[in-house]
Amino acid sequence: MSIGTTSGRRPVGVRIAGTGSALPKRCLTNADLEKMMETSDEWIVQRTGIRERRILNREEGESTSQLAADALKAALADAKLTAADLDLIIVATMTAEMSCPASASLVSNLIGAGDCGAFDLTAACSGFVYGLNIAHDLIKGGAHRTIGLIGADALSTLMQYNNHGRSTSIIFGDAAAACVIKATDDTSKGILAQSMHSDGRGWKEIYVPRCIQDLPPGVEFDENKLGHVQMNGASVFKFAVGTFPELIQQTLEEANVAAVDVDMYVCHQSNQRILHAARDRFGLPEDKLYVNIDRYGNTVAASVPLCLDELRKSGRVRDGHKVMFVAFGGGLTWSSSLWQL
Fold first, then answer.
1. Scanning 199, 275, 307, 330, which has the fewest C-beta atoms within 10 Å of its C-beta?
2. What is the pLDDT of residues 162-191, one digit of tens each?
3. What is each CA distance from 321 to 43, 90, 120, 179, 257, in whole angstroms?
4. 232 included as an active-site residue
5. Known catalytic residue: 163?
6. Annotated catalytic residue within 136, 228, 298, 307
7. What pLDDT does 178 receive?
8. Catalytic pick from 136, 144, 228, 268?
9. Active site residue 268
């Protein structure tokens, strides 16, 4: 989608003014997992690329909303703004502590944001990229000027660290990362192309059942399934391998931009093999498609912004760059957002 104007309004650009992240203190390595279940470091690394991940501790006060608040504070400091400057907070998460209130409201309270708007967005691993598109268009349309967008998840709260959950617990980690998105007079800045998709027919490939009625038809009841992530790994891998490069290609075509003209691809960290395959498909050099899954695992909605924060801090993503954000996950969902920073 081209950057346009809203009839009767002064043209406005949209920029990412600051980023920040927050991680739990505890590091859970593959060696630690070997002591909890039948697995091995070699097996995990070969199939996923993951060597360690962070796991929160509720007894020490760590939670989705606390990590989210810490990440947003860091992003505000980076943008040289305060909580009072925000007029909306969006938290992309699938692991809110409570169904009510929203994590975004808890974050607002923790950072002292006053009476600004706040809501949660649930699109699993695609949540943050969905949020980028929504926040951008809310600013572009004139409804808001400064939005705090956070991706925060604590999948450890939905895991079993034993043989019952070994197919999923090796994959996921906990984290939060945020960005401050702000209106600017520079109309060259903002989204060049975007997309948001979902195929609800694939909901049963990744889900978290709370009761027996939540199980898909034909799935035998097992109380170990309740309250824990259930994933058809083979189907999800096939979905990602097929969707990922196609999504990138469609977004490039919509923006009329060549793959080589994008300075960085910031992609959801689900599996290192999928990331490398996408890089090879478009002939990208290694330094144009960032990978940190080895250190954090799949952090769901925090995955993309965690990469972004690290890239900005290292100077590898900066003003003037074209950056494509891509994610896919439960729902099934997939989304892209190509920015001119």
1. 199
2. 998 889 999 999 999 999 999 999 999 999
3. 37, 25, 29, 16, 13
4. no
5. no
6. 298
7. 98
8. 268
9. yes
